[in-house]
Specification:
Blueprint (H helix, E strand, L loop, with lengths): L4 E7 L6 H12 L4 E7 L1 H11 L3 H5 L4 E3 L17 E7 L1 H9 L5 H11 L3 E6 L6 H13 L2 E2 L13 H14 L17
Parallel strand pairs: 1-2, 1-4, 2-3, 4-5, 5-6
Helix pairs in contact: 1-7, 4-5, 4-6
């Protein structure tokens, strides 16, 4: 019997919730055989309503499994529950700081901590600019712990025509870090191809 592949998607309250929403949409619509587990914070719900006009129900329907952000007894809070890892898109500075401190007061922080201790992939789409030295040092610390820091930076060499093209390419790159191949047409082949 084949083991179920699972990916935890965390959406924090930073601007840019569209990245997490797009990741959930790709996982659901591309028949990738990956079960999505969503943790969305209260602040993220406010931000998603403001930026995308999405209500809680519409967001929850995109995930296979939804966990309350305060449910420390959730399946994904245990290292014995197998996942590919965790994508936090976007990742606020507050969430990043909680993860780096190891003081996990929320389910997103707990699952990120479990992901690191189990040597699974943790990808943080940090959404802040400009960055001060404390932010940068925290990112270095998390990288030393094994996290991947991936700010959602647009790639113009793919000639995006819409904002969604930019978001899609960025999310596909993030999913590739988990071995999830959502779109091979976005692979860079070099200037002469």
């Amino acid at each position: 019997m084949q083991q179920q592949l699972r990916l935890v998607v965390g959406i924090s309250g930073a601007s840019g919730g569209v990245y997490g929403i797009r990741a959930l949409t790709i996982l659901k619509k591309c028949n990738l055989n990956v079960e999505s587990h969503l943790i969305v914070t209260r602040n993220a719900l406010i931000t998603l309503q403001q930026e995308l006009k999405m209500n809680k129900q519409a967001i929850y329907e995109l995930a296979d499994v939804v966990h309350s952000p305060q449910d420390m007894g959730a399946s994904v809070a245990s290292g014995s529950y197998p996942t590919l890892g965790m994508l936090i898109a976007p990742c606020s500075i507050k969430t990043m700081s909680e993860i780096s401190s190891g003081v996990t007061s929320s389910l997103i922080g707990r699952v990120a901590d479990v992901t690191l201790k189990e040597k699974r992939r943790l990808v943080l789409m940090i959404r802040e600019t400009p960055l001060h030295l404390g932010h940068l040092r925290t990112m270095v610390k998390l990288t030393e712990f094994g996290a991947v820091i991936m700010p959602p930076v647009p790639a113009y060499y793919v000639h995006p025509k819409t904002i969604d093209d930019v978001v899609f390419y960025t999310v596909v790159r993030a999913l590739n870090l988990f071995g999830i191949n959502a779109n091979t047409s976005s692979i860079w082949l070099g200037i002469n191809h």
